[in-house]
Specification:
With 143 residues, this protein is of the alpha/beta class. Helix content is 49%, strand content 18%. The protein has one domain: Glutaredoxin. The chain contains six helices and five strands. Strands 1-3-2-4-5 form a five-stranded mixed beta sheet. It is globular, with a radius of gyration of 16 Å. 25% of the residues are buried.
């Protein structure tokens, strides 16, 4: 029993370690206002966080990596628009997420939209092989 408990603790720490503590908002208008005030871009991740394999890979291989975390802290306001199957969400959040899905014509997950500090959409990305470095390279091409 003790070995099992220690194993679970180590696994939990390994899961949380990369990129731990990066703030993801769920309110796009609030994020756009924050980005304008701080002169940052807004990255919006449309995801099925608990069931979509590519969404899970995007989180693990890119968003939770130190290179992305450091870049995001300085340059981005992050928003998660989640469509989970097992995670609980308030009815209000579900309605807001559905409205954003429709507004931006999202057809699949993951879809990542990028807005400039003035709220203009400047790009659309998704999962990208090559980890945080490749993703940040594509992100850097967006003006």
């Amino acid at each position: 029993m003790k070995k099992w408990f220690i194993g679970m603790m180590v696994a939990g720490l390994a899961w949380a370690a990369p990129g731990a503590g990066l703030p993801w908002l769920t309110d796009l208008p609030q994020a756009l206002a924050k980005a304008k005030a701080e002169n940052k871009k807004v990255l919006v991740d449309f995801t099925g966080s608990d069931w979509c394999p590519w969404c899970i890979k995007l989180q693990k291989e890119i968003f939770q990596q130190d290179a992305f975390v450091e870049f995001a802290k300085k340059n981005l306001v992050l928003v998660e628009v989640d469509f989970p199957r097992a995670k609980a969400q308030s009815a209000e959040l579900k309605r807001a997420n559905q409205a954003l899905l429709k507004q931006y014509g999202i057809e699949g997950y993951p879809t990542v939209l990028v807005f400039d500090s003035q709220g203009k959409q400047v790009g659309k990305l998704g999962y990208l092989a090559g980890g945080a470095k490749a993703f940040l390279g594509e992100l850097g091409k967006l003006k």
